[in-house]
């Protein structure tokens, strides 16, 4: 019974988060990019003069600012300091371009209140008094500040370093977290001011090496190759003084730095560097002595790996052996022998991933298919899926589909085929082959998949052709495929896709779909709060109040795709949207909804010139703007 209760509460918690996140995503993005008329009717931008549109935008921003101020005031009545700080930070970010002095003050108050709460935390490590939750909120707040003023963020980070109270052990890992945060701030600075980023990185480098330096290095290569090379040289000098045997993060950073030098077209810490393969982004230009010094350091730590350790640096160095052999030929036999010894101590699954991982990253489709024939069972499906994925990226969808049908089974087969269907439909829509898209949709086996695909097609028709009648016919067909009320998570997701498309075509219908979900969300939140009160919940609540920032940040992972799909361009009514959000019964949820409405109107980070179809189906905003 206990096990069943925990499973039920876990499922309930996930459903609550997904439902709230999806509802918020729709309600707060329905008018994020365009200006609705003040009375809620649908305006036609083509018929409005530029002056009229500017007046409507000004009126909308005035409403949003008023809503933001009232929300910020009401949020100070919340119990949890981390929730209050979230509202202060989000409001400061929105006010930055309007009242920078006040924004700085709000940011500072948020950081100071979180630091004070950490310092006053007791030794109890349960969620009621866990200082790590507060520390995470502090880091996220400072990260938001760094998006505005990296130097200010760095000053606040250093000045707000928490004290270690008696009975509270924050020392383990805390230095590393502070260091990583410093270097993450420097990485953000690289976007606008590479010279400042280099200066900040060099100051931080004196304290140690973290993964975030590699991300910074990647960004500097795109902005200022000379600064990137300078930083790489400084990193080599620092790495040579570090205790890489015991500092695993520094050891992995050393391997990845060496990889970025020896294999410049590959980058594991950010997306592949755009243009690097064709010379648009310059590689790191280090002298041979420096490269050899780094290689020697990496090889030495790899050979020092004990059989009782995970084999970390030694495993990671495996893919570099051909490059190392050119520079350190005398060390390679010993390195290969040590690698073979360590591999024998590793469990078979990890060993298989070690063997086939480099192949999956760099091998051609034909090489992957050949390797899959003799691969161990635990790797075979991954090799086939990787091969199919590469074919899909290359546009060879038919061959990818055949590989999946011939070699996969069960859930893996169904998921991959569904991805191919989605890609095929998206390509047909992109090429405006709408009849082809509809034919593919009708062949989909899942009612929810057909409903979501019809919604995408309707939105594409509306935006490409302006055929409102045909779009409505498709949406009405999609609506019939979903139970009312939705009976499971798949149906909720599909319903939200349909609602997002209605927001482009007939917003009133979208609200008719959303409002019942808010009622359902209220019931689920109340049930979760009750479970949490009696110790059977999943930690979504603290002192009877939902933890907003951790909760919704966690939801960003599993549900980020839905959030992106639901970022629509529909001109929904501001007042009706606020009324819908006010249907949430709990104060903290209702205030979060109001904050997100204000954010969708006032934020200068959301962009104003994105392609509507791309925004609706590909690029969106998360619950809080990520920086």
Q: Topology, please?
A:
Layout: H1 2-29, H2 50-75, H3 81-95, H4 100-119, H5 131-146, H6 150-159, H7 174-189, H8 194-205, H9 211-223, H10 225-239, H11 248-262, H12 288-303, H13 312-316, H14 321-327, H15 332-344, H16 348-362, H17 365-374, H18 377-394, H19 397-407, H20 410-430, H21 434-442, H22 447-465, H23 468-480, H24 489-505, H25 507-533, E1 541-542, E2 545-546, H26 548-565, H27 574-581, H28 587-602, H29 612-617
Antiparallel strand pairs: 1-2
Helix pairs in contact: 1-24, 1-25, 1-26, 1-28, 2-3, 2-28, 3-4, 3-5, 3-28, 4-5, 5-6, 6-7, 7-8, 7-9, 8-9, 8-10, 9-10, 10-12, 11-12, 16-18, 17-18, 18-19, 19-20, 20-21, 20-22, 21-22, 22-23, 22-24, 23-24, 24-25, 25-27, 27-28
Summed up:
The chain has 627 residues and is mostly helical.
Walk me through the structure.
This protein is an all-alpha fold. It is globular, with a radius of gyration of 27 Å. The N terminus and C terminus are likely disordered.
Q: Could you give a short account of the major beta sheet?
A: 2 strands, antiparallel
Question: Between the first and last Cα atoms, what is the distance in angstroms?
Answer: 43 Å
Please give the oligomerization state of what you see: single chain
In DSSP terms (H or I, runs of 4 or more residues), the helix count works out at 29
* Fraction of residues in β-strands: under 5%
């Amino acid at each position: 019974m206990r096990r069943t209760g925990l499973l039920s509460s876990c499922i309930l918690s996930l459903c609550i988060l997904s439902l709230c996140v999806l509802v918020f995503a729709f309600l707060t993005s329905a008018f994020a990019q365009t200006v609705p008329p003040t009375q809620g009717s649908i305006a036609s931008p083509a018929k409005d003069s530029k002056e009229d549109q500017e007046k409507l935008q000004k009126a909308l921003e005035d409403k949003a600012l008023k809503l933001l101020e009232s929300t910020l005031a009401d949020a100070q009545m919340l119990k949890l300091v981390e929730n209050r700080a979230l509202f202060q930070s989000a409001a400061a970010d929105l006010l930055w371009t309007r009242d920078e002095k006040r924004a700085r003050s709000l940011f500072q108050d948020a950081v100071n209140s979180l630091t004070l709460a950490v310092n006053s935390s007791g030794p109890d490590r349960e969620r009621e008094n866990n200082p790590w939750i507060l520390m995470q909120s502090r880091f996220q707040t400072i990260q938001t500040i760094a998006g505005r003023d990296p130097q200010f963020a760095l000053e606040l980070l250093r000045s707000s370093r928490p004290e270690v109270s008696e009975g509270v052990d924050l020392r383990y890992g805390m230095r590393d977290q502070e260091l990583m945060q410093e270097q993450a701030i420097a990485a953000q600075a690289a976007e606008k001011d590479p010279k400042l980023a280099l200066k900040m990185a060099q100051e931080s480098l004196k304290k140690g090496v973290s993964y975030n330096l590699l991300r910074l290095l990647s960004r500097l290569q795109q902005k200022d190759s000379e600064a990137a090379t300078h930083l790489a040289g400084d990193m080599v000098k620092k790495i040579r003084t570090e205790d890489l045997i015991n500092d695993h993060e520094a050891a992995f950073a050393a391997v990845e730095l060496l990889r970025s030098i020896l294999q410049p077209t590959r980058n594991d810490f950010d997306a592949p560097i755009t243009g690097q393969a064709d010379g648009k982004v310059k590689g790191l230009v280090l002298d041979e002595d420096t490269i050899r010094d780094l290689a020697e350091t990496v090889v030495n730590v790899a050979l020092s790996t004990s059989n009782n350790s995970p084999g970390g640096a030694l495993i990671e160095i495996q893919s570099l052996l051909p490059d190392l052999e050119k520079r350190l030929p005398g060390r390679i036999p010993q390195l290969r022998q040590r690698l073979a010894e360590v591999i024998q101590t590793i469990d078979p699954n990890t060993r298989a991933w070690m063997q086939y991982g480099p192949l999956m990253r760099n091998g051609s489709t034909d090489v992957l298919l050949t390797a899959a024939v003799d691969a161990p069972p635990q790797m075979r499906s991954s090799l086939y899926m990787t091969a199919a994925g590469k074919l899909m990226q290359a546009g060879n969808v038919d061959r990818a589909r055949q590989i999946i049908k011939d070699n996969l089974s069960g859930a893996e087969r169904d998921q991959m085929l569904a991805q191919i269907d989605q890609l095929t439909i998206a390509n047909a829509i992109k090429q405006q082959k709408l009849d082809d898209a509809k034919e593919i949709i009708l062949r989909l086996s899942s009612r929810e998949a057909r409903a979501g695909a019809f919604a995408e097609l309707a939105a594409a028709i509306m935006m490409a052709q302006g055929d409102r009648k045909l779009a409505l016919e498709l949406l009405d067909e999609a609506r019939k495929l979903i139970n009312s009320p939705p009976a499971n998570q798949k149906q909720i997701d599909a319903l939200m896709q349909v609602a997002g498309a209605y927001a482009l075509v007939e917003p009133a219908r979208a609200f008719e779909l959303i409002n019942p979900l808010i009622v359902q969300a209220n019931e689920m939140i109340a049930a979760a709060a009750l479970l949490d009160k009696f110790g059977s919940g999943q930690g979504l609540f603290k002192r009877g109040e939902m933890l907003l920032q951790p909760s919704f940040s966690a939801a960003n992972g599993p549900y980020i795709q839905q959030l992106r799909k639901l970022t629509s361009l529909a001109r929904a009514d501001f007042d009706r949207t606020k009324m819908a959000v006010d249907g949430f019964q709990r104060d903290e949820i209702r205030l979060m909804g109001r904050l997100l409405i204000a954010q969708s109107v006032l934020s200068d980070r959301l962009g104003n010139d994105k392609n509507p179809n791309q925004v609706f189906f590909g690029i969106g905003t998360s619950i809080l703007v990520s920086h």
